[in-house]
Amino acid sequence: VAGGSREALSELYGRHGRYVLGLAARIVGDPGTAEEVVQDVFTRLWKKAADYDERQAGVATWIMRITRNRAIDELRRRGARPVSEALQDDSPDTGAAAPEEVAEASLRRSRVLAALACLPEKQRKVITLAFFDGRTHGEIASALDEPLGTVKTRIRAAMHSLRDLLAAEKSK
Amino acid sequence: MSRRDLEHVADLLAEHSLGVLRGAELRRVERHLRHCAACGSELAAWQEVADQLACVPAPVQPPPALIGRILDRLPAPAALHAGGRLRGVRLSPGWAALVLVALLASIGANIALWLRTESAEGLLTDPSAVHMVATQAALGAGGRLVPSMNSGRATLLVEGLPGLPPGSQYQLWLIRDGARTSGGVFSVDREGCAVLFVNPPAPLSTYSGFGITVEPAGGSPGPTGVRVLRSPPP
């Protein structure tokens, strides 16, 4: 892609497009806007491919970071604030991806869902509001009508638990 | 640099990895990270945890035309030029998208050699392609059925077909000696576009005509619904 190969970008899209659209749709909540986010993400990948540093993150991680940032920017630009849904185990659309890729992604997803399911509901809620709704400390505190200090403590506790749970899930 | 800037920010890094910090806290973390490798390393570990949340939403299969829209928007000229111009062949955005989707799918299925020239141009300029024309039921729609030189297969590209209600799909028919054989069923995206890879039981050139009808989802043994596209009479 960094060399200007459209074929390479198409291949990247074939591997990651469905995950990018899934994340974008989860964040912005509207299919049309989510597709615009996907277009923008891959256009940015095309323009910024030379900036990619494999020491910083894997390609998939890099793409999903760009997707989340772009989707949250869009959410903020529109002033939209969807009511955050509970994280649930939707049946993934397996589409036309390679079976081994689907299996690996599905396993990774199951591990994260299992870890999230182990969190107390209040901790899960702050993680959801932060990661998928792009809310700040203060905004989360307002949304939950809780003191800012309580929210900060809860986010830290949730992240520590999540780190330990993910490590445990991975070692299973 | 103030003394405050030198204080480690480990207690804020988990939150920073989620992007929830603002104001003075955010500025403090950013200043400190500029010169503290230990906290930078700690942040990277938290970032790994946060990154994993991105795989929670179920993947969603993008509509077929989306990759075409993306490639159309890319800057820098190449054989496939933005706006749908393809080596002198002027394409509508819909056709450009369809061709690119067909190419992408062929790459994904490791069947690039199936296509005559391994280029989008082949799908559009192939003189042996059968152009399908709209009936009164789908005015404005169009289609091309492009045979492969290296195999007995073909690629059907359609655009402008109306979306169908759940429970219905389009079905391609291959006509020979009055008999109609199914060439496959397909649905169109929101723009009425679709790509279907066809594996006909006999070479495409042995058929006298082709048609596309609306059928129950999954297809019918023979055409039962309204015809939307047909090949011109010989």
Low-confidence stretches of chain A: 86-96
By secondary-structure content and strand pairing, the structural class of chain A works out as mainly alpha
Please provide the count of β strands of chain A. 0
Work out the helix count of chain B: 7
Q: Please give the radius of gyration of chain A in angstroms.
A: 17 Å
Mean pLDDT of chain B: 76
- Characterize the overall form of chain B: rod-shaped
Low-confidence runs of chain B: 77-91, 106-125
Q: How far is it from the N-terminal to the C-terminal residue of chain B, by CA?
A: 83 Å
Instruction: Give the number of DSSP strands of chain B.
Output: 11
Helix content of chain A: over 70%
N- and C-termini, Cα separation of chain A: 36 Å
Largest sheet of chain B: 8 strands, antiparallel
Give me the secondary-structure topology.
The complex is a heterodimer of chains A (172) and B (234).
Chain A: H1 6-28, H2 31-48, H3 59-78, H4 99-118, H5 121-131, H6 137-144, H7 148-171
Chain B: H1 3-6, H2 10-18, H3 23-33, H4 37-52, H5 66-73, E1 80-81, E2 85-86, E3 89-90, H6 93-108, H7 120-125, E4 130-134, E5 142-147, E6 154-159, E7 168-176, E8 179-186, E9 194-198, E10 209-216, E11 227-230
Antiparallel strand pairs in B: 1-2, 2-3, 4-5, 4-11, 5-6, 6-9, 7-8, 7-10, 10-11
Q: Which descriptors apply to this entry?
A:
heterodimer; A: 172 residues; 0% strand; B: 234 residues; alpha+beta; 8-stranded antiparallel sheet; 3-stranded antiparallel sheet
